[in-house]
Amino acid sequence: MLFCELLQGTGYAGDLSSDLVAQDLVYDSRIAEPGDVFVCLPGAAADGHAYAKAAYDRGCRLFVAERPLSLPEDAAVALVKNSRAALAVMSRNLFGDPAKELTVIGVTGTKGKTTVTHLIKSVLEAGGVKTGIIGTNGVHFGEIHYKTVNTTPESYEIQKTFREMVKAGCECVCMEVSSQGLMTGRVAGIQFQIGVFTNLSPDHIGPTEHKDFADYMHWKAQLFRQCDLGLVNFDDPHVKEITASATCELIGYGLSEGCAYRGRDIRLVREPGFLGVDFAGETPLGTQGFRLNQPGRFSVYNALVAVAVGQHLGISLPTAARALSKAAIPGRVELVDALPFCTVVLDFAHNEVSMHAILETLREYHPKRLICLFGSVGDRSQLRRAAMAQTAARLCDYCILTSDNPGNEDPMSILSDMEKGMGEAKGRYVTIPDRAAAVKYAVDMAEEGDILLFAGKGHEDYQLIHGQRVPFCERELIRHYAALRLGQPEAEDTVAG
Ligand SMILES: CC(=O)N[C@H]1[C@@H](OP(=O)(O)OP(=O)(O)OC[C@H]2O[C@@H](n3ccc(=O)[nH]c3=O)[C@H](O)[C@@H]2O)O[C@H](CO)[C@@H](O)[C@@H]1O[C@H](C)C(=O)N[C@@H](C)C(=O)N[C@H](CCC(=O)O)C(=O)O
Ligand SMILES: Nc1ncnc2c1ncn2[C@@H]1O[C@H](COP(=O)(O)OP(=O)(O)OP(=O)(O)O)[C@@H](O)[C@H]1O
Fold first, then answer.
1. Phi/psi at 130 (nearest 5 deg)?
2. Which residue minimizes the CA distance to atom 26 of ligand 1?
3. Closest Cα partner for 144 from 173, 124, 107?
4. Which residues does the record list as N6-carboxylysine (modified residue) (predicted)?
């Protein structure tokens, strides 16, 4: 593609020859190749402008930057005001604006994004609409699955993935849109047909993320300034602020009166091997009974919005109900069929908000004892650890404190911060730093009627320890130790990592 065509819409300045040909775009000098356009991005840890020469040395001659670069004369530099925004526009140009060939749905909110995108995919595909998803669990479409670095990837990866999805016959893409993704322009220039708001509470506030809650909220609200229809949780205390600047049509879902999509008659169901919820969903096209394979009130919200999206795309209520009765999401309130006399749940809850949500939900099922195994990630706020531990101490009968992803921190110092929270809330607990040993302890202590929650790892198949990614699959370990406890000989073969 001609460099000047690629730059169309960026508002660039620079005296560029009209016959320069660009092969691809790249924003990391370490993977730059001859023919690539190197886009200099100012980052959190470094500034891409400082790596322009490295990209030149690897053969790049075409550059996009926010300020003049000191490079040999054969380099062509297009100057733009905001290089991340320019990357979004150029990526769209490079891949031929694939969003125009898809129905694009964006899901934002503090909790529930991954769950909701998977539920929407289940509902749409049950109605024959081939759908791709992009989010924390990676990219999924058809038989294709790959991981992403970010919940909302960089604009180049998004546009490239959209194009792959179109080629694979997808009609729709449902993606998680993080506040960081909105703030850093990763979804700039995409007009979403539907935007979904799940809920909002303080999170992602810190030196490399948002400066305060107002900033976090401002960027979440951005989705409703670039979509046609907003499906928003009317029961969330922050819905007014999120929608105040909306430019789209707004439709509410929730449990309160006035919601177009409303859940009522909620009944929590716990049966052997099953933990779920029944409810009636009122919609503009009629009322439908639902049984969800996922527990708790928050699952009703997640399901309602999936039904609403489905209805807007022509999926009937019985089809949506059938899909939701079977939908299971790896690592999100996932039931592990391991010990027949109690309920074992694997969940990604890794901060105070989601711990509170999942534990309160599980309490409502009246377990004999609610036992929770969890750790806290390293290299992040110390307050988060104590807060999580306090919440667990208040809501559980017993806690097993262990390691999550300690990262570059000493696991013992993370555990000591968690123990402070435990002590303040007078919780009963044991500390077992090695997570595999802690899993064994939890499995061995389980009794009839207990609910065991393994929190934090969810779908992850590794632990980050001292900068290393160590294989670790909690689901497999639970099954392994359960099989040992039940005297099943095949247990030896089931451990992964
Ligand atoms: C803190 C932050 O926002 N980091 C994001 C950022 O990377 P960065 O700012 O650290 O990049 P940098 O290291 O400062 O480098 C700046 C530029 O120089 C380039 N570079 C650097 C070194 C070199 O040798 N050569 C070179 O060209 C880099 O490729 C980059 O273009 O830009 C990268 C590319 O887009 C992102 O992958 C990366 O996300 C990191 C992994 C991250 O953790 N981000 C968090 C804050 C985030 O975005 N989280 C949300 C989740 C929120 C939720 O769950 O709700 C998300 O959407 O993932
Ligand atoms: N609607 C909801 N409200 C509150 N909590 C929820 C909701 N849906 C799911 N959860 C809880 O939060 C956890 C994380 O859910 P999910 O991964 O879907 O959210 P997310 O927004 O993608 O989160 P993250 O940004 O941490 O990846 C779940 O495992 C569950 O315990």
1. -70, 125
2. 28
3. 173
4. 220
Q: Distance from the CA of 112 to the center of ligand 2, in angstroms?
A: 4
Q: Token digits for 216? A: 């976090």
DSSP conformation class of 136: T
Best residue among 238, 299, 354 to mutate for probing ligand 2, ranked by most atoms within 8 Å of CB: 354
The stretch 291-308 carries a mean pLDDT of 94
Calculate how far, in angstroms, residue 183's C-alpha sits from the geometric centre of ligand 1. 12
- Whether ligand 2 lies within 6 angstroms of the CB of 137 is answered as no
Q: Annotated binding residue at 160?
A: no
Task: Domain 334-486: give its CATH architecture.
Answer: Alpha-Beta Complex (3.90)
Residues 80, 91: Cα–Cα separation, whole Å = 15
Q: What value does the mean pLDDT take over residues 413-428?
A: 88
For the Cβ of 435 lying below 6 angstroms from any atom of ligand 2, the answer is no
Determine the residue of 180, 332, 459, 460 to mutate for testing ligand 1's pocket, defined as the one with the most ligand atoms within 8 A of the Cβ atom: 180
* Model pLDDT for residues 365-408, shown as the tens digit of each residue: 999 999 999 999 887 767 778 889 999 999 999 999 999 998 88
User: What percent of the chain lies above the pLDDT cut of 90?
Assistant: 80
pTM for the whole thing? Answer: 0.90
Cβ of residue 46 lying under 6 Å from some atom of ligand 1: yes
Distance 2 CA to ligand 2 centre (A): 43
pLDDT tier, 497 (very low <50, low <70, confident <90, very high otherwise)? very low
Amino acid at 488: Q
- Mean pLDDT (the chain, rounded): 93
Quickly name the fold that domain 98-326 has.
Answer: UDP-N-acetylmuramoyl-L-alanine:D-glutamate ligase (3.40.1190)
Annotated ligand binding at 109? The verdict is yes
Q: Is the pLDDT at 68 greater than 50, yes or no?
A: yes
Domain ranges of the chain: 3-94, 98-326, 334-486
The conformational region for residue 366 under phi > 0 = left, psi -120 to 50 = alpha, else beta, is left
Tokens in use for 122?
Answer: 């289940």
- 413 CB-near residues (< 8 Å, 6+ apart): none
The domain made up of 3-94 has a fold known as 3.40.1390
First to last CA, the chain: 46
Pocket test for ligand 2, best of 348, 372, 391, 460 (most atoms within 8 A of CB): 348
Q: Which residues contact 441 (CB under 8 A, 6 or more apart)?
A: 400, 430, 432
Count of CB atoms situated within 10 Å of the CB of 310: 26
Asked whether residue 496 carries a pLDDT value surpassing 70, the answer given is no
Name residue, tokens 């893409």: 173
